[in-house]
Design brief:
alpha/beta; Rossmann fold; GMP Synthetase, Chain A, domain 3; 7-stranded mixed beta sheet; 5-stranded antiparallel beta sheet
């Protein structure tokens, strides 16, 4: 199995003078990227770090982030990308838990500097040190089982855990990604999801391996994203549903020339078919592809291309078939495989599945069983192996003994033209245990009664929201852009115990 050095070597061989990274007018060729990665290894070594040491990164997307992502593991170090939206206690926890040797950051580290041997500031100090550093050979002592990164999860469901991803895991994901993205040297990638998250770096190795150009967007902004697509002829991008919705709304109001856009991938959380429909209207040249996975799976598990063709068919709600090299099944609470069409927990296996949670053997054993990773997502498979997600197990609403999947309620809400964002949650109910409640960000004023009556045309009565809260601002999201339903539930469950959790 190749390691991180192999995509770099191939790009150097087939496209040394091609542009590897383009950012704010500055270009880096693959020849220069190779040299910078070798010097980066020398620079980090000069700070006292050795093979296997953890190097933390707390920064926005940048050319330096991209070369750290590929160059540090290629030299035998372990990257620890930190969530830029996390509060200081969360960051301190990750740094201490990882026992990080060095912190590379584009912001004031404050007291975080007390937890590491040294701090390097991006870009100025980083560039100075890189310029003075000796080049170090890449790939020495690195094997497919070497740890490449610790990716701290937490976002939507609870306490943060360090996901241990090896070279084998992430290289496998890059190969799986090629089967869905089908990149070439002519492609131009817009990296608009944050690179501390698996979605943000999902295409980095794939792009390098194919010797194509990548444009890191420092911080997601829909106007800047659209400008970059137009100005640089972007052909591929990936975002979470909130990002796709944001660029869609702006493109429909203030259209740019996005005719070069060929493929828009989205993942990270379920997406309403109405969002995809509006997005395809906004970007008619682009094919849409739904990908599904988790940090623990490096992240890709399934994919479906030409999603826009299935929006009026059941398959429009699918997130695709297992990618080549990945296995998929649906299991009950005891781990028994369920028949086609039945809803249960999604389980997956393959070379992309993590080594485990860093220093958490009990939590690792809970999700890695008999070679299968148990995702905590609820879904079903059809006769052709297409996966349909219905909910996170912890988000499912149990009302009067009936299971209500949030995605069904949200899908109905999104069909109404005034709904910009929607989330369904379970709230305490004296009679039914839980009641369905919706939180909606509207495009224009609308009454709760109107939305509830509208939903009645699409879903059963017991699935209808009993009440709707309206928000004038976007719904709370994690760093990667997933809606934080636990934050929406919190005021309703203060002082109460929610059985499903």
């Amino acid at each position: 199995m190749p390691t991180f050095i192999d995509p770099l070597k191939r790009a150097l061989q087939v496209g040394a003078d091609r542009t590897a990274v383009l950012c704010e007018g500055n270009k880096t060729s693959y020849r220069d990227l190779w040299t910078r990665c070798c010097k980066l290894a020398g620079m980090v070594s000069s700070k006292g770090a050795g093979p296997g040491d953890r190097i933390a990164i707390l920064a926005d997307n940048s050319p330096q982030y991209l070369e750290m992502y590929v160059g540090l593991p290629a030299a035998g170090f372990v990257i620890v990308p930190l969530n830029t939206r996390h509060a200081e206690p969360e960051l301190r926890y990750a740094l201490e838990d990882a026992d990080a040797k060095l912190l590379i950051t584009d912001r004031d580290p404050g007291t975080l500097s007390d937890l590491v041997d040294s701090v390097v500031s991006v870009p100025d100090e980083y560039e100075t040190l890189l310029g003075d550093a000796a080049e170090m050979d890449l790939g020495v002592g690195v094997t497919e089982n070497s740890l490449a990164g610790l990716f701290y999860t937490g976002g939507t469901t609870g306490a943060s855990k360090g996901v241990m991803l090896s070279h084998r895991n992430l290289i496998s994901n890059a190969i799986h990604n090629m089967t869905i993205a089908q990149p070439s040297q002519e492609h131009v990638w817009l990296v608009m999801a944050p690179m501390f998250h698996a979605a943000g770096t999902n295409g980095v190795l794939t792009g390098i391996w194919s010797a194509s150009c990548q444009i890191p967007l420092r911080v997601f902004d829909p106007a800047t994203a659209l400008d970059l697509i137009e100005f640089h002829g972007v052909t591929i991008t990936l975002g979470v549903p909130a990002m796709i919705a944001a660029i869609t709304e702006l493109q429909l109001r203030e259209p740019r020339d996005t005719a070069t856009l060929q493929l828009v991938l989205h993942g990270g959380s379920p997406i309403a078919t109405e969002v995809v429909r509006r997005a395809h209207n906004a970007f008619p040249s682009a094919e849409f592809a739904h990908v599904y996975g988790a940090t623990e799976t490096s992240p890709l598990v399934t994919g479906i291309r030409n999603e826009q063709l299935y929006l009026d068919e059941p398959r429009g709600r699918s997130c695709g078939q297992a990618l080549i090299g990945v296995q998929l099944k649906i299991v009950d609470a005891k781990g028994n495989e369920l028949p086609t069409g039945e809803v249960g927990e999604v389980a997956t296996s393959g070379p992309n599945v993590m080594q485990g949670y860093w220093r958490k053997p009990e939590q690792t054993a809970e999700v890695l069983r008999d070679g299968w990773y148990h995702t905590g997502d609820l879904g079903r498979l059809d006769a052709d192996g297409y996966l349909y997600l219905v909910d996170r197990a912890k988000d499912m609403i149990v009302t009067g003994g009936e299971n209500v999947y949030c995605s069904e309620v949200e899908e109905a809400l999104y069909k109404h033209p005034v709904v910009l964002e929607a989330a369904a949650i379970g709230v305490p109910d004296a009679k039914w245990g839980e009641a369905v409640h919706a939180v909606v960000v509207p495009r224009e004023p609308v009454s709760a009664e109107e939305l509830i009556e509208f939903c009645r045309r699409h879903i059963a009565g017991y699935k209808l929201p009993k009440a709707i809260t309206f928000s004038a601002t976007e719904l709370p999201k994690s760093g990667p852009g997933k809606i934080l339903k636990r934050e929406l539930r919190k005021p309703f469950w203060e002082g109460k115990q929610r059985g499903i959790n």
